């Protein structure tokens, strides 16, 4: 029988901390208003109690960004801010939800955490058949992960109250109209009750 893994997506300091280069522009306030860090910690604790995998995904680049492939204006803005550089505060996770030493950290250089990483192989090797998604941004990494995971045959669950986008309308459209096409959208409490 398969098992479920929790994927904690891009919940890194650069994006969610008020001192982060992106978080300082207002997104850290959205994360705090939605109480994401505490809610994700509750889910992490429940997964760990059940000895189910918790996997952390972050985006990070070399200081010269030679490993950045995207040609988008989004990446140009990150480069200009010198954001998401590996080995810095920005690519680490908040202490409250930080990975344990035995938990996998996947570093990606694209929106999709399956692209050019070992995530898919690791999940398959560990008998994972379902993934629960939480993190930021709902309309980017959560969406991309849900689509690819569904294409790979995983059962996908999105924890709505553990996700956020800078624009609440983007989050609403995703969780109400788009993400249900790829899996179940539910609350973290209902997900925990279903484990």
Unreliable sequence segments: none
Query: Main β-sheet, in a few words?
Result: 6 strands, parallel
- The structural class is alpha/beta
- Tally the beta strands: 6
What's the arrangement of secondary structure elements?
Elements lengths: L2 E7 L3 H4 L10 H7 L2 H14 L4 E6 L13 H8 L24 E4 L10 H7 L2 E9 L1 H14 L3 E10 L3 H11 L5 E3 L1 H7 L1
Parallel strand pairs: 1-2, 1-4, 2-3, 4-5, 5-6
Q: What descriptive keywords fit this protein?
A:
single chain; 195 residues; alpha/beta; six-stranded parallel β-sheet; 8 helices; 20% strand
Description:
By secondary structure, this protein is of the alpha/beta class. 37% of the residues lie in helices and 20% in strands. The chain has eight helices and six strands. The chain has a six-stranded parallel beta sheet, sandwiched between helices. The model has no long low-confidence stretch (mean pLDDT 96).
Structure summary:
The chain has helices at 13-16, 27-33, 36-49, 73-80, 119-125, 138-151, 168-178, 188-194; strands at residues 3-9, 54-59, 105-108, 128-136, 155-164, 184-186.
């Amino acid at each position: 029988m398969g098992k479920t893994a929790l994927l904690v997506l891009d919940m890194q300091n650069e994006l969610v901390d008020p001192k982060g280069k992106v978080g300082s522009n207002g997104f850290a306030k959205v994360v705090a208003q939605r109480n994401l860090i505490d809610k994700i910690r509750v889910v992490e604790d429940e997964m760990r109690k059940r000895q189910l995998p918790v996997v952390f995904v972050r985006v990070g680049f070399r200081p010269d960004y030679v490993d950045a492939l995207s040609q988008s204006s989004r990446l140009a803005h990150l480069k200009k801010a010198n954001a998401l550089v590996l080995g810095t505060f920005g690519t680490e996770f908040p202490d409250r939800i930080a990975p344990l030493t035995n938990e996998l950290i996947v570093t990606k250089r694209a929106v999709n955490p399956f692209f050019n990483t070992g995530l898919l192989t690791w999940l398959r090797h560990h008998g994972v058949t379902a993934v629960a998604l939480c993190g930021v941004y709902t309309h980017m990494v959560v969406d991309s992960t849900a689509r690819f995971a569904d294409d790979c045959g995983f059962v996908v669950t999105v924890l709505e109250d553990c996700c956020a986008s800078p624009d609440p309308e983007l989050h609403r459209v995703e969780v109400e109209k788009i993400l249900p096409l790829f899996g179940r959208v539910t609350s973290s409490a209902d997900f925990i009750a279903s484990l």
